[in-house]
Amino acid sequence: MRLSIDRHSRSYRNRFTSVRLDRLVERRDDPEWVSAALAADDVHFVPLWRSRSMLERGDEGTIAVYLRPGELDAIDRIQPPTLLGTDEKRTYFAVSLTDAQKDAVLAARPDARFDNLRMASIDMDAKHAGILAYAKALHYWQHRHRFCGVCGNANRLLSAGHRLRCTNDECARETFPRIDPAIIVLVTHGDACLLGRNARWPAKRFSTLAGFVEPGESLEDAVVREVYEEARVQLRDVRYVSSQPWPFPASSMCGFYAEAISRDCQVSDELEELRWYSTDELTRAVLDGEVLLSPTVSIAFQLLADWFARAGGGDLEAIARQARDAGSR
């Protein structure tokens, strides 16, 4: 089956997928070009402090804060800047800040804060949410691979932040950015969908089923295995839908729909409760405060909302928002 990869493709609607940058792969190993780009007037630095992004609240939602030349005393206190790419107007680099630098930039920008991107991105512009997620994913990989996994010597950052090489010349092992593939699936049977609840989640939170792909396993096999392990549900059809980068901390979520053979299910060690919902039942449960859905930034919510609309339930995001507004009064 041929899948579209243009900006109107299915994955484009998921949060953090709108990284509309030329990633400038051919420039990463050109130190002269990188040095010139870092000194250019159009450069924008994406500041990261302890894996948190710099944000501001504006009239239209959360705004990504980029720093300009001169706003930092140095751009390599912790490590060299990481080249993210260009949108043809400006070039973006991710920069890791020390505690002192964080305090200095916040003093100069009293309306800004360093915050968790996962929840703060709910009302962010899609492009800038994607850029910050891209920077955060690389930042996480860099800081958790500071030492060689073969000989234990320190790694050195190369290729403008996209490659690590062991400093032990006898080893010289190279490491490249890694992500953890995971499947996330909305299981349906007839006019109902299956939602599960993990005991570690906030009270009343229900969501789709998910799990990590194991070595030597296809994505489809992972769907079948995880659904059976978590809910003892057997599937007769599995269909890929879309994907989402999820740098919390380093996953790539591969979204699926699956049709169950029956509604027989059983809770497991991973889930404490399972429920089948039709669109009408889910609407009532959300509005009555019996069910709290996943955040709208997640592919879990998108999978559910798309099914809900196709099944005649309407706009699930509007229903969830109505429930939140009622609960806050």
TrEMBL record:
Similarity comment text for this entry: Belongs to the Nudix hydrolase family. NudC subfamily.
Entries under InterPro entries matching the protein: NAD-cap_RNA_hydrolase_NudC (IPR050241), NADH_PPase-like_N (IPR015375), NudC-like_C (IPR049734), NUDIX_hydrolase-like_dom_sf (IPR015797), NUDIX_hydrolase_CS (IPR020084), NUDIX_hydrolase_dom (IPR000086)
First-level EC class: hydrolase
Alphabetized SUPFAM superfamilies for the sequence: Nudix (SSF55811)
Domain spans labelled Nudix hydrolase: 177-299
EC numbers on record: 3.6.1.22
CC cofactor: Mg(2+); Zn(2+)
GO terms (BP aspect): NAD+ catabolic process; NADP+ catabolic process
UniProt entry tagged with the keyword Metal-binding: yes
GO cellular component, as recorded: cytosol
Molecular function terms, GO-annotated: metal ion binding; NADH pyrophosphatase activity; RNA NAD-cap (NMN-forming) hydrolase activity
Protein name per the record: NAD(+) diphosphatase
Known catalytic reactions: a 5'-end NAD(+)-phospho-ribonucleoside in mRNA + H2O = a 5'-end phospho-adenosine-phospho-ribonucleoside in mRNA + beta-nicotinamide D-ribonucleotide + 2 H(+)
A Pfam family reported for this protein in Swiss-Prot or TrEMBL: NUDIX-like
PROSITE patterns (UniProt xref): NUDIX, NUDIX_BOX
Keywords in alphabetical order: Hydrolase, Magnesium, Metal-binding, NAD
